[in-house]
Amino acid sequence: MKHRALGLALGYAADQLVGDPQRWHPVSGFGKLARAAEGRLYADHRAAGVVFTSLLVGSAGALGYVADRATRRRPVLSIAVTALTTWTVLGGRSLGFEARTIDAQLRDGDLAAARRQVTHLVGRDPSRLDENGIARATIESVAENTSDAVVAPLWWGAILGPAGLLGYRAANTLDARVGHRTPRLERFGWASARFDDLLNLVPARLTAVLAVALGDDGRGAIRAWRRDARKHPSPNAGPVEAAFAGALGIRLGGTNVYHGVVEDRGTLGDGPVPAPGDIGRTARLASKVGIGAVVAAVAVALVPRR
Predict the structure, then answer these.
(1) Reduced to 3 states, what is the DSSP secondary structure of residue 305?
(2) In degrees rounded to 5, what are phi and psi of residue 235?
(3) For residues 231, 237, 239 and 241, what is the CA-based torsion angle, rounded to 10 degrees?
(4) What pTM value is reported for the model?
């Protein structure tokens, strides 16, 4: 498993140094494939969604498995396949770039630009957001996506190699695409949303543990996690955002508006509402969590297996 461990570490380093491919991004290509499959398989019931999710996630996972098996006895190729797959599915550098861009725009007083930029991270209505609202949206997205786009792929890569990396990213992409409780997608997207929840149960809590261990206020992070996580409608975003809120000494959650629909996300943490100056602190914590996650993934990958 040392080849898997080395491949994960190299893929993480590539994401941090290079970021996402600017052209021909495989995840973007998978999104187009998912859109085409949705057009053919959509029906307003759960069974259609189960078929849709199983077909696409299974195909992605199978591709990773075949590549892993084909290179298992060729160490250099095995490391390269794992590293390339890891680099493809991680999004840590891009997440940090978005946070730093919004931070700079708010520091320059360009609220209009920050409202446009924050739509790269969140689906809530930006026209209703002031500076503090944009800061909160950015911080919550950075926290949640540190789990979804960094910790979770590394975890499943450590457990299952390229199959886990590609299968997880496929599931997470489908959840983002169809896992919304809208009249059209509530039943069709049910399988994608619940499967993504299942895959993130362990990684989300690992993210929260790393925020406790690496944040400025570990006790505050534990307190907010234990007390407030259940208030969030998501079983996985709740622990992550609560732990980040406590670690940073701020208060997250509240009321959000998505396409005219008001949603209460609960109140997470004890501190003041986030200000623009808290975005940089959040990005630094997310970076520490990412480093902790790759160290943990390498350690798990190195555990001997029969």
Answers:
(1) coil
(2) -70, -15
(3) -90
(4) 0.94
- Evaluate whether 93 touches 15 at the Cβ level (below 8 Å): yes
User: How many other CB atoms are found less than 10 A from the CB of residue 23?
Assistant: 5
- Phi/psi of residue 258, each to 5°? -115, 110
With a CB cutoff of 8 Å and minimum separation 6, the contacts of 218 are 212, 247
- Helix/strand/coil for 96: helix
Sign of the dihedral defined by the CA atoms of residues 253, 100, 174, 143, in that order: negative
Percent of the chain past pLDDT 90, that is, above it, reads 84
Number of Cβ within a 10 Å radius of residue 112: 9
Residue 242 near residue 269, CB atoms below 8 Å: yes
Q: Which among 59, 58, 75 is positioned nearest to 2, based on CA atoms?
A: 75
* Helix locations, the chain, DSSP H: 2-18, 26-41, 46-71, 75-89, 92-107, 111-118, 131-146, 152-160, 162-178, 190-199, 201-214, 218-228, 237-248, 278-302
- Per the listing, tokens 């790759």 go with 294
pLDDT digits 0-9 by tens, 29-84: 888 899 999 999 999 999 999 999 999 999 999 999 999 999 999 999 999 999 99
Short-list 41, 60, 59, CA closest to 51:
41
